[in-house]
Request: fold
Amino acid sequence: MRLRNRFLLWIRKRQGRPLSPMKTIAAAFAVIILLGTFLLTLPAASRDGQRCPFLPALFTATSATCVTGLTPFDTYTQWSGFGQGVLLTLIEVGGLGFMSMATLFIFLLRRRIGLKQRMLMAQALSLNDMEGVVRLQRTVLYGSLSVEGIGAAILTAHFWPRFGFSRALWLGTFHSVSAFCNAGFDIFGFLEPGASLLTFQNDPVVLLTLGALVIIGGLGFLVWEELAERKPFRRMSVYTKLVLCTTAALLLSCWGITCLLEWNNPETLGNMSVGSKLLNGFFQSVTLRTAGFAVIDQAALTEGGKAVAMLFMLVGGSSGSTAGGLKTVTFVVLLLFLRARLRGKSTVCAFKRTIPDSQALDAMTIAMTMILLAFFGAVFICATSPVGFTNALYETISALATVGLTAGTTTRLSIPAQCLIILYMYFGRVGVLTISLGFLSGDRATERFRYAQTNLLIG
Reply:
């Protein structure tokens, strides 16, 4: 009875109290996932007409909404046309953000956008203020749909002679959206179940088109706006400069290292021609940026190849984009901070601008949180499932960074491990910082006093 009274008192205190933008976004993603789970459990969603069990449906809906790509079964084999349509909708909403989709209807209905909607847009787009948020949101919507449309047109034209127009149109649309949103879902199971893009290893049109969509989707909405304005590089913001330089450096370095480590591995690149090795090595470097399409068998990678893949998966794409991970600028701020400290400097600088110490601390907080979660999650998977530590760590990083690549581990996860991966996918998409601020900022403790400082031996 006392517990019931406390619960009722807690409800009364919160009645009429509006949710903060961050809490609203986190709650909205949860509602979308549950709605998608319900639709996927309907008999019409499964190819065999049988109801899909709740946990696999929840796993798949979370993966689609959080644009991850991990799934307990082959997408084409399991889901009917209706089920695939549900997944495509979840991917689009999850990739662009529910506020982007809601704003689309506001624009179509010619309604006025109020202050609360502007606050939600700013939070969803990772903006610090609301200045120009409506203009940016319009750019995001029109730009996203245009890029997806171009990608769908190229893929449809390419698939048409082989599969016929109707199937080619569906394949082109589904994979264009999946690639742009960095989701990694594919419906090529009718060619070879569970093979992802392995059947297109020698198809440069498919791999380069999907790769371009992945890169564009992972740059971020703020970068799009500056590129659309055709500013010269020297006049771009420091953030955009860092994103472009870091993205190029990560792609090229991952491409080179992957080719170096896998060049003679007969189970990955070893048996290909030189041109195919370079093409597939490049696509591997692209898909590790949270895309999740597998063009080579991830379980067959060398130990060094897996280690490199995990590092680049952890970095991910850029803020305000369809990608996940630590984010490119977070990663480069960590490197700049490390470089400054090793040189005995107390300030972090980039392009003749000083980066606030608070942002360097935020970057370290996010990085340490994700690394610790990935490590302990891998230990938990090893303890509950017949999986080795390296492959378990590969799975947890893939889930946290919303990548979707797997070393053959997903189908062998126990029920507790599946629940953990579901939480990790949600946590990775909504964002470590957004969750911590959204659910803790309302009850932050105030520092009324400080203890005297003391010096410790470090290193």
